[in-house]
Amino acid sequence: MKNKLKVYRAMHDLTQEELAKELKVTRQTIIAIEKLKYDPSLGLAFKIARFFKVQIEDIFQDDE
């Protein structure tokens, strides 16, 4: 699954650590999502979208 997490994080001037704290996950989780090594759970994906006040599809796109 492709994502624009790094783009949204940069637009809000957040470090990986700051975003991780806001979402209550580890910095390693943020790194793995940004590097496309880990697809977040649906719950975490919605949490990320709510945090940035966007639709989930704005951040996460299917590979197809």
UniProtKB/TrEMBL annotation:
Residues 5-59 form the HTH cro/C1-type domain. GO terms for molecular function: DNA binding. InterPro entries: Cro/C1-type_HTH, Lambda_DNA-bd_dom_sf. It holds the Pfam family HTH_3. Keywords: DNA-binding. It comes from the Archaea. SMART domains: HTH_XRE. This is Transcriptional regulator, XRE family. It comes from Methanobacterium paludis (strain DSM 25820 / JCM 18151 / SWAN1). The lineage of its organism: Archaea, Methanobacteriati, Methanobacteriota, Methanomada group, Methanobacteria.
